[in-house]
């Protein structure tokens, strides 16, 4: 037989029964259900059903017990065709209600006896009319059913619940909800009263109100059938709590409600009103705080206000020069208090709108202003732009002060009254005329230019520089403290004025001029005249005023010479020969120097040679040499005597001259000539030509083997003579005294040919070297005269 092909499930469970449901089985003529308690000695419970039944209940079960439920499908022979099992727990036992009551208008509390095995309970409430049904789960007794209607009858029952399900409802009981609490509305019309109002409560016949002050144990209870109650003689700014309850006709109290109401605050007392300092004018109001106030509102008589939680308040802005009053109102949740007693106040006086400075005399200024109302006195402050400050205290509308040129003065006036001074004042600037420069320095920077310098002065933004001699033409119009007056006339005094100017005050035309002279005019050289070899007189123009000093300067390549004069001429001395000078003239005064005049070239004569040497070459010819001469290009040399002269012109430093007479004293002159024709006459120590060579020289043999040389002298007989014989075998020399015209020589060998030279011996023993030699052949004894064989010229060397 097949097993377990039928499905079994528990449909419902109560504390005494279980209803099961199964699927039908083909061929079954009946079904048997056996409920066997698990873990319990109780006997099983059976129930049998027909073959067409698929649901049945097993009753007489024990509450809160686990049962094994077995279903068997049987045929007509009671054979089991199929079976199925399941386990289920029965519900707990049915609880019983002890009492039900209502303390609130929307709930009823049920007290019941709890049963074993219940995990929770279900409260059921039904209206008698059947239009209300509600169940609510609670965990234990008592349980409260909520969301009910006030003053309404309800039927109440309780069911226990476990895992198996719920029990049957308990025996019902009836209960009625109480009336609603009144909806109290409170207000505080004054700071000592509270008014309570409410709408009538349905089914209520009496009302009870209890009032208590916060923080107090004293209560006041009042029963009334009215819907309005007013509590008097209360404390201001104090919170009172009021509890209200309604009664029904059965004498039951309904819900109670408690509301708290604070009384209005007491009027505050204004203690102080002060005008606040600062740029923005305002007033500060102070008052004594009152109990229960959480906000204060301050009003002024001109409609301004402020609010705060503190005991002071600022009203901004406040107009200056006003006389007003102020009062304070305290607020809390109940409303405002009565206004405080008004407190009067005045604000700072307004600053004068029109302030100006007058300067009737230079240095004496007065600040002046228009008067304003509500003023006791004025404080005027004058601050100079360098930080120096002064002030005055006056009840008038003017204040004198000392003012200096070139400064800007900032003036302001503060009026005062019992509230203090105005927090600000209009500032007016006054700028005095620029100062005149005191240290004007005029310097000559060129002959016709004056440089004017000064220290910048206060208040000047621009300087005008003029000179009266230029018809007050503005030479400079500049911000710099310097000006150059150019293209002026030389040797002229100019009256120069520096005028400071500013945009605000214009120009100071009271400044004194300064006088300065330009450089002297330039002198020009007219003529240069040589007075001796090294001295020249310079003639020049004098275009300047008297007492002008003129300096003539001659500048050469290696030196400079100068002379000074106050008239129109000057002498230059010690100008060396052979030099070229640039000669200029400069005028000098106490102011300075003029420009140099146009220069002129001065050429001194060439220098005489330092030495001249005259050398006699022959008896009639000399060679003149001289040292180089500075500045000379050619030379003319002359030898002059009473017996004649010789001259030569050459570019060299030597010259060969003839026509010389022997034994004659010559003067030596040399003329040095420059390339431009400048000449210098040079004289030197005289030159004496050599003694004349003897003439008519003859050689004679004499007895005793002596030879005599005889001659004739052309000049004076003042010179010794020397005679030299040069033979082929021997040479001989002899000396003849002055005045003697012969000389004897002892011959050693006869028949020789002799060269004879007879020459005078000059003062210092020098022999005239250019006398001509003569040759003689002297025969041996037997002949009286020599015979000249030849006559040859002897070299001067």
From TrEMBL:
Q: Locate the Fibronectin type-III domain: which residues? A: 2-93, 178-267, 522-607
Which InterPro entries does the record match to this protein? Answer: FN3_dom, FN3_sf, Ig-like_fold, Interferon/interleukin_rcp_dom
Q: Which Gene3D superfamilies match?
A: Immunoglobulins
**Where does the UniProt annotation place the signal sequence?**
none
Q: What is this protein called?
A: Fibronectin type III domain containing 7a
Tell me which species this is from: Haplochromis burtoni (Burton's mouthbrooder)
């Amino acid at each position: 037989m097949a097993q377990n092909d039928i499905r079994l499930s528990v449909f419902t469970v109560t504390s005494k029964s279980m209803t099961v449901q199964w699927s039908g089985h083909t061929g079954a003529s009946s079904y048997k259900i056996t409920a066997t308690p698990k873990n319990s000695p109780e006997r099983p419970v059976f129930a049998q059903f027909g073959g067409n039944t698929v649901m049945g209940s097993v009753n007489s079960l024990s509450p809160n017990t686990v049962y094994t439920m077995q279903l068997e499908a049987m045929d007509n022979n009671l054979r089991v065709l199929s079976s199925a099992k399941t386990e289920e727990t029965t519900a707990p036992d049915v609880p019983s209600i002890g009492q039900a009551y209502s303390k609130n208008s929307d709930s009823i509390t049920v007290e019941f006896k709890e049963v074993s095995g219940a995990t929770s309970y279900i409260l059921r409430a039904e209206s008698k009319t059947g239009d209300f049904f509600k169940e609510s789960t609670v965990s234990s007794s008592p349980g409260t059913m909520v969301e009910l209607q006030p003053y309404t009858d309800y039927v109440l029952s309780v069911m226990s619940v476990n895992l198996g399900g719920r029990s049957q409802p308990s025996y019902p009981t009836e209960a009625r909800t109480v009336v609603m609490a009144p909806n109290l509305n409170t207000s505080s019309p004054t700071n000592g009263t509270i008014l309570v109002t409410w709408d009538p409560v349905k089914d209520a016949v009496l009302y009870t109100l209890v009032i208590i002050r916060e923080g107090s144990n004293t209560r006041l209870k009042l029963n009334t059938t009215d819907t309005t109650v007013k509590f008097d003689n209360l404390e201001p700014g104090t919170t009172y709590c009021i509890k209200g309850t309604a009664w029904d006709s059965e004498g039951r109290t309904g819900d109670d409600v408690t509301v708290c109401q604070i009384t209005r605050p007491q009027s505050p007392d204004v203690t102080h009103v002060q005008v606040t300092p600062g740029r923005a004018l305002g007033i500060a109001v102070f008052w004594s705080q009152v109990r229960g106030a959480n906000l204060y509102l301050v009003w002024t008589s001109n409609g301004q206000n402020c609010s705060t939680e503190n005991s002071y308040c600022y009203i901004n802005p406040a107009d200056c020069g006003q006389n007003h009053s102020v009062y304070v109102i305290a607020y809390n949740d109940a409303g405002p208090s009565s206004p405080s007693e008004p407190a009067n106040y005045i604000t700072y006086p307004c600053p004068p709108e029109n302030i100006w400075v007058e300067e009737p005399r230079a240095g004496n200024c007065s600040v002046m202003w228009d008067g304003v109302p509500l003023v006791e006195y004025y404080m005027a402050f004058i601050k100079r732009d360098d930080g120096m400050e002064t002030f005055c205290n006056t009840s008038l509308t003017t204040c004198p002060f000392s003012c200096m040129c070139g400064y800007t003065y900032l003036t302001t006036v503060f009026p005062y009254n019992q509230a203090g001074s105005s927090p600000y004042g209009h500032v007016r600037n006054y700028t005095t005329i620029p100062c005149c420069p005191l240290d004007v320095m005029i310097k000559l920077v060129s002959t016709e230019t004056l440089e004017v310098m000064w220290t910048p002065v206060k208040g000047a933004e621009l300087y005008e520089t003029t000179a009266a001699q230029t018809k007050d033409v503005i030479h400079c119009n500049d911000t710099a403290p310097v000006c150059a007056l150019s293209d002026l006339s030389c040797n002229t005094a100019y009256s120069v004025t520096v005028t400071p100017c500013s945009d605000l005050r214009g120009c100071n035309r009271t400044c004194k001029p300064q006088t300065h002279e330009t450089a002297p005019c330039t002198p020009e050289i007219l003529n240069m005249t040589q007075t001796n070899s090294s001295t020249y007189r310079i003639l020049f123009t004098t275009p300047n005023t008297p007492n002008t000093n003129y300096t003539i300067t001659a500048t050469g390549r290696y030196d400079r010479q100068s002379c000074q004069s106050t008239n129109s001429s000057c002498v230059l001395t010690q100008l060396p020969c052979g030099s070229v000078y640039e000669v200029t003239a400069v005028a000098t005064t106490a102011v300075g120097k003029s420009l140099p005049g146009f220069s002129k070239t001065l050429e001194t004569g060439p220098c005489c040679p330092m030495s001249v040497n005259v050398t006699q070459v022959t008896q009639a010819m000399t060679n003149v040499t001289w040292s180089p001469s500075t500045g000379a290009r050619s030379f003319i040399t002359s030898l002059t005597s009473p017996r004649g002269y010789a001259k030569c012109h050459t570019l060299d430093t030597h010259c060969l001259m003839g026509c010389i007479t022997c034994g004659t004293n010559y003067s030596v002159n040399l003329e040095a000539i420059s390339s431009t024709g400048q000449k210098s006459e040079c004289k030197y120590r005289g030159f004496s030509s050599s003694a004349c060579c003897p003439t008519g020289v003859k050689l004679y043999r004499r007895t005793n083997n002596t030879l005599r040389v005889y001659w004739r002298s052309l000049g004076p007989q003042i010179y010794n003579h020397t005679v030299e014989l040069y033979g082929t075998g021997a040479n001989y020399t002899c000396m003849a005294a002055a005045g003697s015209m012969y000389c004897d020589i002892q011959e050693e060998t006869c028949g020789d040919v002799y060269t004879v030279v007879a020459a005078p011996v000059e003062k210092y023993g020098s022999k005239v070297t250019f006398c001509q030699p003569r040759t003689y052949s002297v025969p041996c004894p037997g002949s009286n005269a020599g015979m000249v064989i030849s006559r040859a010229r002897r070299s001067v060397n």
